[in-house]
Amino acid sequence: MSETTTMTRKINSPAELEAFRKQCSTVYFAKEKFISVCGGTGCRGGGCLKVTEAFRNILDKLGLTDKVPLRLTGCHGFCERGPLVVIYPEKIFYQKVKSSDVEAIITDTYLEGKIIDKLLYRDPVTKEAIVHEYDIPFYKKQMQNVFGSNGKINPYSIDDYIAIGGYSALTKVLFNMQPEGVIDEVRKSGLRGCGGGGFVTARKWASCRNAASEDGVRYVICNADEGDPGAFMDRSIMEGNPNAVIEGMIIGAYAIGSHQGYVYIRREYPLALDTLTKALMQAREYGFLGDDILGSGFDFRIGINRGGGAFVCGESTALMASMEGKVGEPRAKYTHTTDKGLWGKPTNLNNVETWANVPNIINKGADWFAAVGTKKSKGTKIFSLVGKVNNTGLVEAPMGMTLREIIFDIGGGVKDGRKFKAVQTGGPSGGMLPESLLDLPVDFDSLTEVGSMMGSGGMIVMDDRNCMVDMAKYYIHFLLEESCGKCVPCREGLTQMHYLLEKVCAGEGGLEVIKQIERLGSVMCVASLCGLGKSAANPVLSTLRYFREEYEEHLRDKKCRGGVCKPLITYSVIPENCNGCYVCFRNCPEQAITGKKQEVHFIHEDKCTRCGICMAVCKFEAIAVA
Amino acid sequence: MTCLLQKAKVLLAFKSYIIYQVSYIIYQVSYIIYQLRTMDNQNNKLATILSRYPKEESSLIMVLQDIQEEYRYLPQEVLVQTAEALGIAQAKIFGVATFFKAFSLKRRGEKVIQVCTGTACHVRGSRLILEKFERETGIKAGETSGDLKYTLEGVNCVGACALGPVVVVNEEMQGNFTMQKTGKVLGKSRSKDDE
User: Fold this and answer.
1) Residues 386-415 (A) with a CB less than 8 A from some CB of B
2) What is the per-residue pLDDT across A396-420, written as a single tens digit (0 to 9) for each?
3) ipTM of the complex
4) Chain B residues with CB inside 8 Å of A388's CB?
5) How far apart (Å, rounded) are the C-alpha atoms in residues A458 and A481?
6) Domain limits at A421?
């Protein structure tokens, strides 16, 4: 995969690095015009590797391999439309590209500058074809500070990263700044932890630097255990630009005075593990890691730890326990991990996105970073915009953008023209927000105020076919499985909460169940040991706050307006739409549908198990659920 | 005459008895050789895995991951050997092995079907897909079929949320999954639902 490894010697000084950067730049910028194929996980699922192979074969066939630069890059963000191909420098944007389109892209677009109409993105509303990436509404309002390089460089090539200015922040820090100065700069920038906590990064660094350590050992860790269901921004940063994370970590280590770092990465991310491992190897080879980095006298190493697959291990103390080879249980944080963390040493843990922000802050200055955002939340944040929204993918937006702008302008509104019901932010610890709060600016504090949180940036859009009680139950079930079981309020509380929610979903019991849920939730919030338990009731409490009538409907009217909770719904045929095509009849696993060809079918409620297959297979929207 | 015949009979019986005995011994010996070989193999496999990491407690999870990758589950006898090699109590290893989702103490099927039940997939109906798999394989999520053909799992977020619902079959990701595609995954030539 690595294409350009021209040098195998160590770089010993900033001057050598600059000389080498020139060399890299000449190679990288030799041809302004290049083809970038998105190699993110989303596009891989869509078959981008086949497309890349087709590119290689056809370039080979035409004898153009040396003349047409082809880059398989990291995620471009717009996963919904993958596989994506972008032709630089004009940024001609092709979506849903197939192997059969490749030849035309090379001969028509690359060589002759002709646009291929059928591959262009069309505005879902106006049906107008859009040629350039920056004109597409999905990208137009974004501000891709961290994510921007993803589409331009080969993640397996450190040379590409160096060519676009990589590791220049590192030289600046190592040779022109004192550790305290680095922390000051980060403090001025206002950078806060992007993993969910929103803790001020500089404060964390300073307390780790100042913590007492007998032998002077301190650790820095990159938390890449992205377990939030519905979020994948860390994965895409690591897959697209692993060197930015590594550079950020080295700078942080220098500021903190640490000589050993670790990346704790989720095992479900094999591609990210691969890009990161290769990037670390190259960084070691070039002397950005190891002894005497760039001749500055500073030593730092990074090791990789693969996670065992437990959501709770995203919590700092649980993560560290797991790194020590123990069961990933959190501990009470009377003593912060910055004082006593991994193996009892001061440890600084930051999330992938936080680390990736650091080189930019050093390069462009704290003021540049702080110019964007709201009063207390600076810079940009990457959101994973998913669920029932037209343009799913990764969105990097300045802090303070409203939910409406993100979901409707960038996200293109709700899928299939359905009605917006709620947006879930912050993963299992967050909450669900209704339409009335869509004009809320998104930052760390505003979302917390309304009972949700920004969290790591997951944003899941729901429409009127989703049931809020079911969603609350879903999260509680998730947390019930992931709770480590150490403290009683979380372990037993979740079990009981799940039981109560199942009752609501089945329409059993009266309105008093809601009161029980609320009481239980408030106890869990105060009495649990770690963040997981403390916030576990959030999905329930936030839905009760904004969608209480749905709970009441389940219990009082025995109805599920989303058509999700099986005991409360029935499937029926809409006679006007049914043309008697037999498809549902044939597919019903319970033989609950009867009917004759070209006559309206009928669903027998007593036999129906509400599996939903008839609705999924019907091509005429003739099945209703209520 | 009858005496001769009887003698021949006895001889024949004796001969077949000898043949039986010899073949039994051959069988036994080859079985022992086979056993020794696999044991050796197993020891070798474990030794290679252990050689990758320092012999200390913090290596445990990585070692278990490599064992899981090699055998696709954690065989008991290998765990016992691991405990000895790393100097960790068996109970502790059992604790770690049962705590993390990555590990399985049961043998897993030829085809591991993982239905993502992350939030983004859930809102797009992944539960109905999982239920359909359950119905068609006759096993529940988390189980392996008796013939070791399928293992069915509901997993939390595989990080391809934009493509939901996602199903991962033997590490290969299939995005925008629909109920109609289950038959193809299960290797049925034409599922009842394929239209």
Assistant:
1) 386-388, 392-394
2) 999 999 999 999 999 989 988 889 9
3) 0.82
4) 123-124
5) 20
6) 380-463
